[in-house]
Amino acid sequence: MRKSPPYPNTKLKALWDTLDKKQRERFAKASGKTVGSILHTVYGRRGISAEQAIKFERAASRMGHELSRTDLNGACRGCEFARACLGGRRGRS
Known about the structure:
Layout: H1 10-18, H2 21-30, H3 35-42, H4 50-62, H5 69-72, H6 74-77, H7 80-86
């Protein structure tokens, strides 16, 4: 029996849709992924691990965008450390 893929991540897709080709390549490099693998994530073919959520958050921050790990990964959403680290400034989903 095949597992159904994760649902598309609307927060990541919203950010992705605002980036031009050069910015997408920069975001991919900064997050340790390829543009193609991020597209799989954006459209829900792949999930986002806690580690990758942090990389996406940091890459977005370096580019001047706000994207929270707690919006990208369920484990981060429930993590006391993530809440303390973010200090209530992000991740209100």
